[in-house]
Amino acid sequence: MAEPSDSNQWKTLDKDLNRISQIEYATSYVARPLIGPGIALAFMVIAGFAAALLFGTYPNNMIVVAAAVFGAYMALNIGANDVANNMGPAVGANALTMSGAIIIAAICESAGALLAGGDVVSTISKGIIDPSGMEEIRVFTWAMMAALISAALWVNLATKVGAPVSTTHSVVGGVMGAGIAAAGFTAVNWPTMGAIAASWVISPVLGGVIAAAFLALIKNRIIYQDDKIAAARKWVPILVAIMAGTFAAYLALKGLKRIVKIDLETALLIGLAIGVVTYFTTRPMIRRQSEGMENRNKSLKALFGLPLVLSAALLSFAHGANDVANAVGPLAAIVHANEFGAFAGEVAIPMWVMVIGAFGISFGLFLFGPKLIRMVGSQITKLNPMRAYCVALSAAITVIVASWLGLPVSSTHIAVGGVFGVGFFREWHMERRLRNNSANQGKPKSIPAEERRRRKLVRRSHFMTIVAAWIVTVPAAAAMSAVIFLLLNALIR
């Protein structure tokens, strides 16, 4: 009987090796979506170990460890959802690449949280509930734990469906739901809740109106001028100075709580001074940059690129300084209650809690952030550097106006409202120009309904999804928190 030849043996071996390589390729392809959740889980475990080591051997050590794990989970979800509002417009306008935006946001968010983050936070989320209505520390601890878990779950769900929601409102809803379950409806400060509900409407509308107003100014004074470059040399330094002054006031008001307490009037004076200095500094720079540019809109976009990147970085720093403390507030409350055996309206945030928040945001941004960044930056409406600049500027101005009016607002609602404002203004402006052109040419002024639908510049499906998510954020987080509190209170006595 003839033995198999060497060539047949090699062919068989090649086939077997090819099958093995195909299996390895399929395994790596299937495992790829699990890399992000795996890293996130590892970070949560590390946060738990860090809490076990740093908190010490207090009687309720395991409760703090569990809270640290859920606090890390919350921080990951903030990075995946909330940071997109700051970086999305810059990415959508092609002023930043996705990787560049993620790196800048991670650095600025972490720096804002660790360098300028508030060292004191209201554990009951700006007076939403009265902790004195809770009879004992155990009840208060489970209420804060339920608020933390429900807020994290809701933000995670919103990220899955592609809806940027307010982290602060999620925490507020969680605290309210747990407070009602623990001490009844009388524990809730309903006037404060009414002000928060009003901000759902006021902040995005105000952000949209301001963004649309600046876009109208840019179109009127620069884009539609015969000599666009000359107009840009006059107006761009003014716009950059407004941006610098606004962000200086914004950071002084919101981002420097740990260093010094600044009132609104002082913050506005600081902003005015910075704005004047910026104007005289950028005027010659813009003149040099615009030399040799062609008289077209594409040239104008280059002049707004760097200011847009700087505004996105400053927004991320201010967000890290202001919102991270709110997100880890329930965790700080649990740590304080179990360390001192008492709860308080305001407590100091331990540095290790802020580190969990800062690093969690960075990890969440790297692992899961691109989805929402693309949504805010390009899928709602088309942005260029000038439109994105208007969105970033409106966010800072709206926060200052809201602080002056004493309204609790969400940076998420403001930024996304600015994107919607820019998009709807473009729709209105385009329809108006078409009507004027038709009138000048002797054609009917009315535009057919199908043509009007075809020219929509804001995707209505995203608009409805986001608005619906905003409306149900507080009640959904509250309902989940109440259920989680009742389960914790029933299972662990």
UniProtKB/TrEMBL annotation:
GO terms for biological process: phosphate ion transmembrane transport. Keywords: Membrane, Phosphate transport, Transmembrane, Transmembrane helix, Transport. The chain crosses the membrane at residues 34-55, 62-80, 139-159, 171-190, 196-215, 235-253, 259-281, 302-321, 349-368, 388-405, 463-492. One of its GO terms (cellular component) is membrane. It holds the Pfam family PHO4. Signal peptide: none annotated. It comes from the Bacteria. GO terms for molecular function: phosphate transmembrane transporter activity. It is found in: Membrane. It is a multi-pass membrane protein. The keyword Transmembrane helix applies. The keyword Transcription does not apply. Belongs to the inorganic phosphate transporter (PiT) (TC 2.A.20) family. This is Phosphate transporter. It comes from Roseovarius pacificus.
